[in-house]
Amino acid sequence: MEVHHVDLTISAVAEEQYPKTDYPEIALVGRSNVGKSSLTNVLINRKNFAHTSSQPGKTQTLNFYNVEDQLFFVDVPGYGYAKVSKKQREKFGKMIETYLTTRPQLKGVIELVDARHAPSDDDVAMYQWLKYYQVPLLVVGTKIDKVKPSARTKSISQITKTLGMTDTPLQLFSAETKFGKDEVWQWIEARMHD
Ligand code: GDP
């Protein structure tokens, strides 16, 4: 999709604030620092629109980005957040779970993992949870520019094996070189029109 117009419609802290439109929504999940803002910026052709997270997890909101009045990217805050109380975390976790399992507009989820390392226990837990609820899923291995070309096959098998992927698509990605951008968009567009 050629993107010219994007705005942050709402940083929601409660369900009543979610957009009332029926545009398809694509959620992005992954732990803090995995490259979620960077991926979003590449997809929408902006340098610094979605803010790269200097204070991971401080603001716990679901951020709805309106793209061309055609879809929303929904930024789901990184898991493994440290700076909030257990109670806050539980409350917010519940909101995310409800969003991911019951929102009719949600057409797919992109789970980001760092392609330089094996997925973390949190990554595995998130993956299995999404599979359990049969959410259409794309796994994106980020920061692939930091992985030598000769090590990429190993990176793919490490992600595939650690997550226990069988039929889920995996796309390597770099916000630096934009490697994988077109493929991620193709997956999103297929989900939008499904
Ligand atoms: P978020 O917390 O998931 O939103 O992560 P950010 O997008 O803020 O990225 C965290 C850090 O990783 C920043 O310093 C980014 O510049 C860096 N980063 C993100 N994506 C890439 C990538 O594809 N390649 C490289 N080399 N660095 C990246």
UniProtKB/TrEMBL annotation:
Alphabetical list of PANTHER family matching this protein: ENGB-TYPE G DOMAIN-CONTAINING PROTEIN (PTHR11649:SF13), MSS1/TRME-RELATED GTP-BINDING PROTEIN (PTHR11649)
Protein name: Probable GTP-binding protein EngB
InterPro entries xrefs: G_ENGB_dom, GTP-bd, GTP-bd_ribosome_bio_YsxC, P-loop_NTPase, Small_GTP-bd
Pfam families: MMR_HSR1
Keyword Disulfide bond: no
NCBIfam families named among the record's database cross-references: GTPase_YsxC, small_GTP
Superkingdom, taxonomy of origin: Bacteria
Function: Necessary for normal cell division and for the maintenance of normal septation.
UniProt keyword Transmembrane present: no
Coiled-coil stretches: none
Names of the cofactor(s): Mg(2+)
Keywords associated with the record: Cell cycle, Cell division, GTP-binding, Magnesium, Metal-binding, Nucleotide-binding, Septation
